User: What shape does this take?
Amino acid sequence: MSTPQLLFKNRRPDETVFLDGYRASGGYQGLEQALKGMTPEEIRLLVKEANLRGRGGAGFPTGVKWSFFPAEAPGPKYLVCNCDEMEPGTYKDGELLLADPHQLVEGMILSAFALQTDVGYIFIRYAYQRQAENLRRAIAEAEAAGYLGKNILGSGFDFALHVHGSAGRYILGEETALLNGLEGKRPNPRLKPPFPATRGLFGQPTTVNNVETLANIPHIVTGGASWFRGLALTPGSSGTKLYGLSGHLNVTECFELPVGIPLREIVENYGGGVWQQRKFKACLPGGASTPYLTAAQMDTALDFDSLEKVGSRFGTAGVTVFDDRTCMVAVTLNLIRFFARESCGWCTPCRDGLTMVRWLLETIESGQGTGEHLEMLKEQLLNIRGNSFCALAEGAMGPVDGLLRLFEQEIIDHLEAGKCPVTGNRTI
Amino acid sequence: MPTLTIDNQQVTVHDGATVFEAAEQLGIVIPHFCYHKALGAVGACRMCAVTVHAGIFKGLQMACLLKVEEGMVVTTGDPRSVEFRARVAEWQMLNHPHDCPVCDEGGECQLQEMTIAGGHGRRRYRGEKRTYNNQQLGPFIAQEMNRCIQCYRCVRTYRDYCGGRDFGVMGSRNRVFFGRFQAGPLESDFSGNIVDVCPTGVLTDKTYRFKSRHWDLQEAASVCPHCSLGCATLPGGRYRELQRVRSGINEQVNGCFICDRGRFGSSYVNHPDRPRQARLAEQPVTVVDALQQLAGQARELIETHGPEAVLLLGSSRATLETNWLLQRWAAELGCRPPLLAAHTPRHQAARVAAFDLADRLASLAEVRQADLLVLFAVDPLAEAPLLAVALRQAVRNGGRVLVYDPRPVELPCEFEHQSLTVLQIRNLLAEETVESTLLRELLDRAARPVLIGGGDLLGAGGLRHLQRLATKASSALRPCLVHPVLGGPNSFGSALLSPPEPGEDDLLTRLESGRVKMLVCLETDPLLEAPDGERFADTLTRLDELVVFDYLPTPLSVHATLFIPSTAPVEAAGSFINNEGRLQLFGRVIEPGLPIAVTGGGDHPPREFFTVTPGSDPQPAWQLLQQLLGGRADLQAVRQRMQVALPCLAGFAELQPGGPGLRAAAAVAPGRFEESLPEQPLGSLQLLVTPARYGSDLFSRYADKLAPRFSAAGIILNPQDAAERGLNAGERVILDTDAGSYRLPLTCHAGLAAGCALVENSAAFPHLVPGGELGFCQVSAEVAHD
Assistant: This one.
C-alpha cells in the first residue's frame, strides 16, 4: 500500500492500540507541540488552511465551522463528537475506534484547546459497545498521563471528556437531534437558526464534529496544512479518507486512501473486483443517502466536488457495490424501509412522505405498479426533497433520485412485466 | 417595519414578523396545522409552504418560519405552492380514517378544512394504515389516536404551555403516539385545552361526546364565571342544554386557554334540581304575580317600619347591570342602599382593588411579561387557575416567581416558595422583617415587577400593605404593578358600584339589629357564600319575608318565602368586571328552559307537547329589576344610563362581547389605613380555609361533570404540629373554630407552614368559607366513646 497511513497507521488485525503504542508511533506529540507553541487561533487557522472537510457526511469545511464558534467568549461552551455512526454502508468510525481510540481523544483535546471549550462529549452509537470501552480506557489513560483534566501539560488549559451512549436511532446522527438526546430530551432535530455554534448543548455555544474529522486534527498539527492538502489526489481536495467497502465485492473492508481516488481503483484494486465474476451495475459512493453511480461513472474521482458534478455526494465514503443481477428497485426499497423506519416522526414529508415512497416502491417491486405509480414516485421526489425539516428525508431521497434518473427503464420493466424482471431476486 | 408583497398586495409589518403573520394581516389564510399563535411556529407539518420570488431564500419556504424582509415578493396560490400543499395534505391523510360521520370534530375540523384548502381530494395511497390502541384519559378527554396527524400541538399545549407532566409524545416515525405513559386520568388542571388545539378528532371533549355538530350549536362570546380572572370562553348549547365550553381568545386576559374548572364546570346550567318556577309560600305563581307581590310587600314594610325594614343584597356573581339596577330599585323604594356582597371581607378586599389599586392593576398579559412576580398568600391553582399558566409563561420568558404562602402551593413552573403564616406575611408586607429589605432590593432591580396578592388570606388590610409596597417599589422609570386575586367573577364590579362609606355596617350587623323585615337575596346564598353561615341562618327566623332570586338550587332558595327564578350567565347578556378592573361583556348563548334531554326522558323528539317552552320562566335578573322599576328599558339603554352615572364606565355602551374589554378605571381613592391584627391565642393554630380546586365556587359545585374531580373533606397540619398534639395522619380529629366544631380526617404535609391548620372549602365540606377574617382554631384528638 503506497498511501500514507495517518488514521490507520496503528491498525493491526484484532488489536487495539492504547497509550503506550499510540505514543510510540508519535501520539500526543501534536498536543504537546500545540500547547507549548501555538495559540488557539493558530490551530483554527491551520485547520482552515488544511481545508479539512467534515467526514460525517455533509462535508462542511471544518475550519469554516470553527470560525463561527465564539471561542473567545466567556461562559460554558462544548465540544461534541458525533460517533452515532448508523448510516447503512458506513462503519469507518467504528473501525477507527477499534484500532486506535487515542487518536480521537487527542484530536478532541486539540480541538477543545483551539475552540477554548473545557468540556467535551463523545456521543457514541448504541451498538459500539467495544469502541465505547476503548474510549473509556483511553480517556482514563490520558487523564492519568496528564493529557486530560486540569492544567493539561502545565498549559493552564482544562478539558474534561465524557463518553455518552446513544439510545440507538439513526436520527441521533443529526447534530441538533444529537444535542437533544445528549440533554436527555426527545431527539427531534432543532429549528435552525440558532445554530449550535450560538445555542447548542444546554443552550451554550457548541461545536459538533465527526470522529474521523477530529482524529485528523493531530495529524494536521504535526504535518502542517500544505502536507495535508497534498495527500489528496484531486485539486481542491485534501487529506486521506477512510473508505468502507461493502456489497457485492470480493473484499469488503475499510481502507485509508487518498481523497480523490477513482471509483474504479477502489472496486478493482481494493475491493478485489465484483464478486462471483459478475459485472458492476451500480454503487452508493458515500453511504445509503447518496445517489447511485453506474458503470459508466467508474472513472469518477471520489471527492466532494467530483461526485457533486455527477449528481451524487461523497458522503461518508461508504462504498456499497451492487452486481448486475441486482434489482435497483429492490435496493432502493430496502434503503427506504430503513429511512422510513428511522424517521423521528417530526415533519410530515419524512414521517408520512417516506411511508408513501415505501408503499410506491413496494407496489412497483411486487409487480402491481402502473404508470401512475411511476408518476407518483417522481412527484414524491420533487416534493420531499428540499422541503423536510432536517436532512434525513433529503438523504433518504438520494437513492430514489438515483433510481429515477439512472434506472427509470428498470422501473418500466417492472410495470410492463407485472413482476420483478431481475431473475433470482429474492429481496421482497 | 419591512414592507413586502404577498399575492400582489403590499403590506407593512412589524419587525420580526413572519410571512404567515403578514399574510394573516392581509386576510390571507395560509393552510397550516402545527402553527398556533399561542404555541408559535415549529415547522413540523410543512403545510404552510409558499413560494418566495424575491428574498434571500427563494423558492418553496415555510411561511410560519420565514421572517419578513424588506421588498420580499411571495405568492401563496402559485401552482408550485398549491401542488406541495396538496402533497402534504395527502401525506397527512395516509393514515387518517374516513370516519368523519361519527367523529365529534366533524364540521369544525381543521384537517377537513385544510385538506380542502390544500387541494387534495382523491386517495391514492392503498397501503396499510397504522392503527393504535387508545388510552382512557379520565372523565374529560376522549382519545382516538388513529385520527392523529402528528402536529404536536397537544404536547406543546399540555407540557410546554400549561406545564403538565403526565402527557407526552412517545415512539417515532409514523408510529408517534401522544398520550400518557400508562392509561389514567390526566392530572393537569388545564387538560381540556388539548381538545381546543387538536386540529382533528384525536382529542375531543368526552362530556360532549356525540351530542351535537358544531353548526347546530348556539354559541356566543362569554366570560367565565368560575373565578375572578374573567377568562374569555365560547360556551355552546343546543336543545336548551349547555353542552360544552371552549376557550375564547382574549390576549389581555387568558390568551387562548382556560382551565378545566371553567371548561367542564358549566353543567350547573342544566342542573336537574335547578329551580325554574316562581314560588310564593311553596305555591307556584307567575313571575308577574311574584314581582307584584314583592313590590307591594316591600313598599308596605318600608311605610310601616321605615327604610331599614327592607334589605337588598346584591352579589359578586350577579352582573354589573343587575347590581346597579338593584341600587336604583332601593333608591326608588326609599330603603337603605343595597349591600352588593354577602361576604364582607371579600367585598372589602375588592374595594381595595377597585379604589386603592386602580392606577397599578396588572392584567394577566402583564403577568406573562413580568420578570419578577411575587405572590403573597395566593394559591393560583385553587383561587385563579389560569394565573398559574400566566406565571409559567413569565418563567418561560426568563422571569422569576417568589411565593410567600402558608399552604403547600403547587405551580406548573419553577418557583421559590417561602412557607410563612398569614401573620408573618402581613409583617413582611408591613416591612418589619429582614426579608422585607431583601424583597425591596429584588423589586428595585426588576424591570417589570408584579405583586400578586390573594384577597382571601391578605384581606383588605393586607392588600393595602401590598399597595404601599408597590408604590415604594415603583420608580419614575417603571411602575410596580399589582394583580389582586378576588372572590367572584364580579367582585370588582360590586365593589366599584359601592365605594366605602363611613359608618356603614355589614349584612350580619343589619340582620341582627332586628329591624330588617324583608331580605331580598339577588343571586347569592350567604349560607354557602359568606363566612358565619350559622349566624346568618339564625337571623333568618327573625325575618317576615325572605325573597330569593337565583338560578342555582341553593339551600337558601328552599327557605325562601318568595322565590323568583333568574337566568344563568349563559342564558342572558350581561357584564362582569374582573380582578384587574376589566369590564367584559358576554352574550346570550341559549334561552332558558328544561333541556329536551330532560323533557323527552332521553327520547328525541319529545313525546309530550306544550304551547310554551317547559321551564322557560327564568328571566335575567336585570330584566326582573327593570320590571320592578316600572321601566321597559333594554340592556343597551341601561348601560347608557350607567355610563352617564358612573364616569369610570365610559365606553360601556359601545362595548361588544368577545373583545379585550375595557378597563373600568376608578379614580384612585386610597382607603383609610387602619388595621389591627388579632392576637393569636396561646396554643392555637391559624385557621386557613382555602377553596378546593373544584367544587368551591357554587358554579362548579353544582356542575356534575366536575364531580370526579371533587376532593374529600379533610384537615391538613404540619407534621410537627400534629406530633405536638399527639395526632396521627389518617385519624379523625376535632377542629374547633369560632364558627363550630368539625370532625375531619387528618393529613400531614411538611409543605404547610407550622402553626397553621388548613381545610378546603368544597361540596364535601361547605361549612367554612374562604376569605373570612383571620381566625384561630384548636385541633385535638377525637375523644373515644366507650
User: Anything to note?
Assistant: Chain B touches chain A at residues 42-47, 49, 59-60, 65, 83-84, 87-88, 90-92, 94-95, 124-127, 149-150, 152, 169, 171-176 (CB under 8 Å). The longest helix of chain B spans residues 287-305.
